[in-house]
Amino acid sequence: MKRDLIYLALIVAAITAVKVTARTTPETPAEIRPLRIEAGFTKTVHILFPSPVTYIDIGSMDIIAGKADGAENVVRVKAAVRNFAAETNLTVITEDGGFFTFDVHYAENPVVSTLNLTVQEPQPESMKKPAAVGYPQPTAPASEGLVLLREVGREKPATVKRMLSDIYRQNRTDVKGIRAKKYGIEVEVLGIYVFNDVIYIHTCISNDTNISFEVDARRFIVADRKLAKRTAQQQTSLEILRVCNDPAVVRGHQRQRTVFALPKLTIADDKVLLLEIIEKNGARHQTTEITSRVTSPRREISLPNRLSGISITFRHVSGRSIPL
User: Which of 281, 200, 280 is nearest to 247 (CA)?
Assistant: First the structure.
C-alpha cells in the first residue's frame, strides 16, 4: 500500500512537471515559406495579389520590381542584371495586411510569366521543387491580416475589409431620416456601425435625372453646426480608411451604395459631421449632415452573428432606438 502511494505521488509529480514545462516553453514562431519565382532580363513577370499593394522591397539590385501602371494589385518583376547567380528575395505587403515573400532566381526564359495569387492556383510541374529543398507550391498563402497597418489602428485590415463587404452585402437600412436631395440627386445614410474603434457608414446615392452624375470626390468633414451651411471655416477633414464600392459614375435613374470606414471620432453638440460629394465638371454638389446625436449616442446594443459572425455595435440615438 505504501509503495502504491509512492508510485502515485511520483506520477502526479511527473504530470505536473510536464504541464509546467509546456507552459514555460515558448511557442515556435510560425514560418512563412517563400514562393519560388523566376525573373528574366528580357521578359517581365507579373504577380497578381488579392488586394492593392502598399509596400514592395527587393533583396538586391539584381532585380527591379514595382506596381504596374494603372493597377494597384499587380507587381511586375524583372532582372536588372543578366545571368545573376545569387538568389535574391522580394517582399510585398498588401492593403488588407497580407504578407508575401518570394525567392527570386534568374532564368533567361521564365516558365511562369504571370502568377495569380488571388485564387488557389497550383504551380506548373516544371516549376515544382521537392519539399525538402524548401520550395512550396505557389498557391495564395494564408497571410491575410498578418500585418497591422498604422492607418487602421488596432483593427486588422482583413477584418475591416470583411466588415465593409458584409455591410454592403447585407444591404440593411438601420438609419432613417439622414438624407439630402438637390438637383434630382439624393444622398442618404442607411446605417452607422462601430466595431473596434472603426466607424462604418453605409450610404446610397440616387440619380433621378437623365444626366449621369460623375463623382469627383467624397469627403467627410467635422464642422461647426451654425457654420456648416454658410462657410468652409472651422472645418476638419477626416481620413477615409477604406471604401467598399466607390463608383465613379452614377448613371441616370440609377442608385449606387457605398460603405466607408472612418477612424473613431466623437462630436460635440455644437458640431456636425458632413458628407460632401462633389460632381466632376458640374455643380450638383451634395452635402449630407450627420448630427452628434447619431455619432455620439448614449446607449448601444450588439448585433452578433449578423455580419459573417462578427459582432458589431449598432448605436442608439439619445437613449431611444433609431427606427428600422
Answer: 280
- For residue 237, give the amino acid letter: S
User: What CA–CA distance (Å, rounded) separates 127 from 112?
Assistant: 8
CA distance linking residue 165 with residue 145, whole number of Å: 15
Cell for 67? 506596381
Distance CA 198, CA 206 (A): 26
Nearest to 171 by CA among 148, 195, 198, 204: 204
Over residues 203-259, the pLDDT tens digits come to 999 999 999 999 999 999 888 876 555 555 567 888 888 899 989 999 999 999 999
The answer on pLDDT for 3 being more than 80 is no
C-alpha to C-alpha distances, 67 to 57, 94, 292, nearest whole angstrom = 12, 12, 41
Going by C-beta distance under 8 Å and a sequence separation of 6 or more, which residues neighbour residue 161?
Answer: 51, 95, 96, 242
DSSP string, 266-316: ---TTEEEEEEEEETTSS--EEEEEEHHHHS-S-EEEEEEEETTEEEEEE-
Nearest C-alpha neighbor of 99 from the set 45, 161, 157: 157
Per mean pLDDT, which range of 104-113, 114-123, 129-138, 248-257 is the poorest?
129-138
List pLDDT tens digits, range 55-89.
999 999 999 999 988 788 899 999 999 999 899 99
155, burial (CB in 10 Å: exposed 0-12, middle 13-18, buried 19+): buried
* Residue recorded with cell 468633414: 221
List the beta strands (DSSP E) in 183-270: 185-195, 198-207, 213-224, 235-238, 242-244, 249-250, 254-263
Provide the 3-class DSSP secondary structure of residue 12. Answer: helix
